[in-house]
Design a protein that fits this description.
two-stranded parallel sheet; about 325 residues; alpha/beta; globular
């Protein structure tokens, strides 16, 4: 029962691969090692498990239909966790064609692989950004996602709809996970915690948008991985109580389909997040207070009661613990 994990050179994918290998799974990893950010960091993530006897790596691009078809045909995975995507909200604004090729066409190739090769469960990454202009919080899966503010969020909205159609037409159990601001060791260099740490240590100012008034459900990587593994073990099922006259958008009465929030229950103010980082680094930050960026939402807050009910999900790591672990890793990795 091998598991295909896409994006194993990425932040979440590398942590997930290690967790699955640690519990005795056979893992097939796919990644194209693109140069959107430091390829050496990606290689270092992979090096933690590349030699594991239960791990097989495939270097390929999601947008390459023939390569993805060949992977499914030759490797014969039974379950799939699709995490690979072109990262970066700003990158999407500057390179929309590349973005859509990876995040939508690439997802189609994964769905087609699942369709033709008897996949028993597809778990795929969505995002809290999908709630867009909705300001009713905490965000629950039943709330509107019809007003995305970025192409990134729109691409994930498209993924959720594509997954439902394939779940219905081809009986593929599909579960989408809306991630809320994931952070931790081996994180992405273009994300806030990484950028802030680098700037503070260099004595440079850090850009703080919305004048620091953001709040976020910052979620530590271990809590995310724990949730993914729990979900993977329980394939989505058709909801026999689903009401087509009052449809729940996070479930389905015609398909084995579910969507869950996955994140920390307690939102944290961005300025508090920075304060914790200052304490861990033993240095004060120079704040460059800036207005809200186009596409940013002021606040996110995760209602994870559905995931808790379904699989017992309970995030354990608070920001004080999580930021400290990140700083310890950062100092060790970068010397």
């Amino acid at each position: 029962m091998s598991i295909l994990v896409t994006g194993t050179a990425g932040f979440i994918g590398s942590h997930l691969a290690l967790a699955l290998l640690g519990r005795g799974e056979q893992v097939i990893g796919l990644d194209n090692l693109n140069d959107y950010y430091d390829v050496n960091l990606k290689k270092a993530r992979l090096a933690r498990f590349m030699g594991h006897p239960a791990y097989t790596h495939v270097h390929a691009d999601l947008a390459d239909r023939a390569a993805v078809d060949a992977l499914f045909a030759t490797r014969q995975p039974r379950r799939v966790v699709h995490l690979a995507a072109q990262a970066g909200v700003r990158y999407a604004a500057e390179n929309p064609h590349v973005y859509v090729s990876s995040n939508i066409t690439g997802f189609l190739h994964i769905l087609e692989g699942c369709r033709h090769h008897n996949i028993t469960h597809l778990v795929y990454a969505s995002t809290s950004s999908i709630y867009g202009a909705n300001t009713r919080m905490p965000f629950a899966e039943q709330y509107s996602t019809e007003h995305p503010l970025t192409l990134y969020a729109a691409s994930k909205k498209a993924n959720e709809m594509m997954a439902h159609s394939y779940a219905h037409l081809y009986a593929i159990p599909c579960t989408g996970l809306r991630f809320f601001t994931v952070y931790g060791p081996w994180g992405r260099p273009d994300m806030a915690l990484f950028l802030f740490t680098k700037a503070i240590l260099a004595g440079q100012p850090i850009p703080v948008f919305n004048h620091g008034q953001h709040t976020r459900s910052f979620t530590y990587i271990d809590d995310i991985v724990e949730g993914i593994v729990r979900v993977l073990d329980q394939p989505a099922q058709c909801d026999t109580g689903w009401d087509s006259h009052n449809p729940d958008p996070a479930a389905s009465g015609v398909a084995a389909y579910r969507v869950y929030n996955i994140g920390n229950r307690e939102p944290v103010a961005l300025l508090r997040y920075i304060e914790v980082l200052e304490q861990c680094l033993g240095r004060k930050a120079q704040l460059e207070l800036l207005p809200l960026q186009p596409g940013d939402v002021p606040d996110t807050s995760a209602d994870v009661s559905a995931l808790a009910s379904a699989v017992g999900y309970q995030p354990q790591v608070n920001v004080e613990q999580g930021v400290a672990r990140f700083v310890e890793w950062y100092r060790a990795y970068y010397g």
